[in-house]
Amino acid sequence: MRVNFTVNGRPQEADDVWEGESLLYVLRERLGLPGSKNACEQGECGSCTVRLDGVPVCSCLVAAGQVEGREVVTVEGLADHAKQRAEGGCANGACGTSLDEAKAWQAKGTDSQTGEGTELSPIQQAFIDAGAVQCGFCTPGLLVAADEMLERTPNPTDADIREALSGNLCRCTGYEKIMDAVRLAAARQSEGV
Amino acid sequence: MPANGVPTKITQGSQTKGGIGESTLRPDGTLKVTGEFAYSSDMWHEDMLWGQILRSTVAHAEIVSIDTSQALALPGVYAVMTYDDLPTEVKNYGLEIQDTPVLAHGKVRHHGEPVAIVAADHPETARRAAAKIHVEYRELPVITDEASAVAPDALLVHEGRDDHHAGHVPHPNVVHRQPIVRGDAAAAARRADAVVTGEYTFGMQDQAFLGPESGLAVPEEDGGVHLYIATQWLHSDLRQIAPVLGLPEDKVRMTLAGVGGAFGGREDLSMQIHACLLALRTGKPVKIVYNRFESFFGHVHRHPAKLYYEHGATKDGKLTHIKCRIVLDGGAYASASPAVVGNAASLSVGPYVVDDVDIEAIALYTNNPPCGAMRGFGAVQACFAYEAQMDKLAKKLGMDPVELRRLNAMEQGTIMPTGQPVDSPAPVAELLRRVKAMPMPPERQWESSEGADVRQLPGGLSNTTHGEGVVRGVGYAVGIKNVGFSEGFDDYSTARVRMEVVAGEPVATVHTAMAEVGQGGVTVHAQIARTELGVTQVTIHPADTQVGSAGSTSASRQTYVTGGAVKNACELVREKVLEIGRRRFGSHHPAWATAELLLEGGKVVTDAGEVLADLVDVLEGEAVEIEREWRHRPTEAFDLRTGQGNGHVQYSFAAHRAVVEVDTELGLVKVIELACAQDVGKALNPLSVVGQIQGGTTQGLGVAVMEEIIVDPKTAKVRNPSFTDYLIPTILDTPTIPVDVLELADEHAPYGLRGIGEAPTLSSTPAVLAAIRAATGLELDRTPVRPEHLTGTA
Q1: Own/partner pairs, B408-411, CB within 8 angstroms, 24+ separation
Q2: Radius of gyration in angstroms for the set of CA atoms belonging to chain A, rounded to a whole number
Q3: Does B523 contact chain A (CB < 8 Å)?
Q4: N or C: which end of chain A has fewer CB within 10 A?
């Protein structure tokens, strides 16, 4: 089947989608947006969290056909990477991550001049600054969930943060630096930094 | 005791921004927060196929027949392979003992063993094809514990063993046995005024890294294959993969893809050989990605264990003796079991002074899931038991449990049960003092102006209590972990460092094969290069097999060993750069010949701070590049009868205090705080150090109160292979984790550093258990503790 929907503000069309495919699969394997992660594919870990018409959902539990005509925001859309994707050698937007792109990304991980030249959302910058990223596999889902929470609750208590992020598993950090990152993003937001 | 130790001459003495000791940020941080970092499961290639593995549905059986015809007939299927399709005589692999079949041959030995592999043009087609392979099994009785493994009529999990442990084990279903005998435990026991015994059970823990096993194998024109893979040790994988494919190692190119956590679970191969076989068979790139269900079958777990202990002490609290027997269940294949046995035995008494010991550790072959490396590696199980024993002993003696520990705490100079002297700081008593001195979280912390916040109570949003029946308990524990590969292993690493001028600026490039699995090794390598070479621009080359082995990202060893290799290579590059400088500019200034020269801020300076030249001018068009192997002090094997030997490289210590609140009616536990004090030698990156300590602490919390792979004792089948049924701590389950970092330099290690990744995983679990015991008054001799263990309904 063909699925038409909007991803990060851009209309997308995915062809030859098998009816059993999830939104996560279509994003990762057909639209070249592997940022949403496939850690459990059973709705338990939150690594694939995206916003569907504004609501955080596990994209692994959403059938691709369900998103017809709807709007999806992924971690890639938290900051402006549309330009980079357009130049990424995937003209029709209907392929996954090419190996060359993947290699280029890896090779770009060069030194610790982190963030230079890349526009990040406050929550993304806070995750880097607070040391909330280790292996990073849970990070995209946490960012989408935390960003949504800060939208709803600009000045969250610790209990609010824990409740909002309780559907996102992290195995590396013990969550302390994630708490720090969300507190930091909230503080910067309220100071207008 | 000094609060801080600083070894002399730990760096070249320069202060370059972004060097060691600073909390510089991750070089891969931006990519990871934008979703652009390419993990192994994100790889994609034009014309790529998807691989799928068919796994056994039973734990122990003869394979009567395999019929692949229906699978092959499915449109979109490119290849189906079984044991009969393996290309060479090498059909097994393994870290130490090559006992693991690439694909099952005539027999399966555990639930979920790979039997056949499929390649198809869509992952669902591959899954459906695998489901159409018909395997007929003739089931065999299952071996699931020590009694069934060594019974007189026990089937042998592996017939005809010829590995190097086969000759000294008491039974062929015992992988390895390591006794340690020192002093005379029986005689010492007669001096004891108090003796306590215990029998403890440690459940099977899963690493539960979030990035599933995955990779992409791309066939190459020269008949070789290029594998993009998430692993902990590229060269170890290579050594095991190439012979099975029948290729020389230089035709199997390996590049590290993004790794979504590891914790020991990626030491063994998973889908590496399968993807390469399918790629070479079909001539097309093949990607394999496990889902979470398969991941539970696709890697080894932490050994579950039975631990039998006897501790004795004089009435004033001095340990007289310790006897213990540790039985680790290694499951169907050896994996890292022999080394886990060595660790469990040699660290079995904990960080205490005790001269008379009688120790035995064994690992079994059973039909349970294979077990191997996981963070803490044999020391975790022992720590859970010996710390429970210390509390029991304190109770019997009427002493404070922390005081008993401090009274018996080892220190620098203490002799281990193996006879090895501890020749660097061992601040066990100090760590306990520090963790005890931390402020306590307030009582009734759930109370707010609007009444009880149920989110802060046991049961949480289930709203099971507003404080009724809730009892607080506090517990302490301390542990000892070895750092690096032990028992005589040649535990080296390799670094290639290049220095050149790029776009008018001096740039250092660091190339190693170190697997960055999230720990931040790449951050630290750049810091070391800045400190040693005085440049700000450092490029970390992607890890691959085009450079020598870095050894494993395991055993808390990478900052020590690959960090050591990077430091060493940088020092050699520095010498060469200074040589060039002397050649070019030596006649311009006498200091070139007479002064101590440093590289700082992109310049050559004297130790008095005088600038002699810009590195840009020194190097001109020249590039300096050095690749060198680097080794820490050698270790020795443990004697097979007495366990004596200088087996370990370095020791690492952490202590925890757990504060828990237990709803005693429902058996629900909320850990309120898990404070940790750890000696790290030298914190190369303090932010990352604290992150490691908090992460390790949380994995210890998980196995204290929630995490356990349940294996049916009748069928040896896994009952809970999912995140629905195997629970790891969420942000609601995890308390605040205040950390007190102590830096006492180990003069034998680069910069005085100490490997830190594992120690916090040891003492976290027994501290939580001790706190629950304190709250409930129950004995609790197993971990994890579940509600039924606290309510008497188990």
Answers
A1: B408/B317, B408/B318, B408/B319, B408/B352, B408/B353, B408/B354, B409/B351, B409/B352, B409/B353, B409/B478, B410/B351, B410/B352, B410/B353, B410/B480
A2: 16
A3: yes
A4: C
Is A184 touching B (CB cutoff 8 A)? no
Residue B448: CB partners within 8 Å, gap ≥ 6?
A: none
| Beta-carbon pairs below 8 A across chains A and B | 264
Radius of gyration of the CA atoms of chain B, in A: 27
Query: Mean pLDDT, to the nearest integer, of B272-286?
Result: 98
pLDDT higher than threshold 90 for residue B463 = yes
Q: Do B724 and A44 touch (CB under 8 A)?
A: yes
Pick from A58, A59, A138, A45: nearest CA to B37 = A138
Taking only the tens place, the pLDDT of each residue in A108-164 is 433 334 445 678 899 999 999 999 999 999 999 999 999 999 989 999 999 999 999
Give the other-Cβ count within 10 Å of B606's Cβ. 16
- Confidence at residue B8, expressed as pLDDT on a 0 to 100 scale: 41
Burial of B620 (0-12, 13-18, 19+ CB in 10 A): exposed
CA–CA distance, A65 with B105 (Å, rounded to integer): 43
C-alpha to C-alpha distance for B151 and B146, rounded to whole angstroms = 8
Please report residues of B whose CB lies closer than 8 A to that of A45: 210, 292, 723
User: Tens of pLDDT along B560-617?
Assistant: 999 999 999 999 999 999 999 999 999 999 999 999 999 999 999 999 999 999 999 9
Give the three-state DSSP class for B563.
helix
Give the tens place of pLDDT for each residue, B291-339: 999 999 999 999 999 999 999 999 999 999 999 999 999 999 999 999 9
- Look up residue B655 and give its two tokens: 């202590």
What pLDDT, on a 0 to 100 scale, did the predictor assign at position A99?
53
* B81 Cα to chain A: minimum distance (Å): 25
Reported ipTM: 0.96
The answer to whether B220 contacts chain A (CB < 8 Å) is no
pLDDT single digits (tens) B511-543:
999 999 999 999 999 999 999 999 999 999 999
Answer whether the bond into residue B750 is a cis peptide, omega within 30°: no
Mutate to test the interface with B, among A27, A36, A38 (most CBs of B within 10 A): A38
Any CB–CB contact under 8 A between A190 and chain B?
no
Give A120 to chain B, closest Cα distance, Å. 8
CA of B21 vs chain A CAs: smallest distance (Å)? 14
Kind and range of the H or E element at B15? none
Among B775, B573, B551, B582, residue whose Cα is nearest residue B668: B775
* The pairing of beta strand B174-182 with beta strand B61-67: unpaired
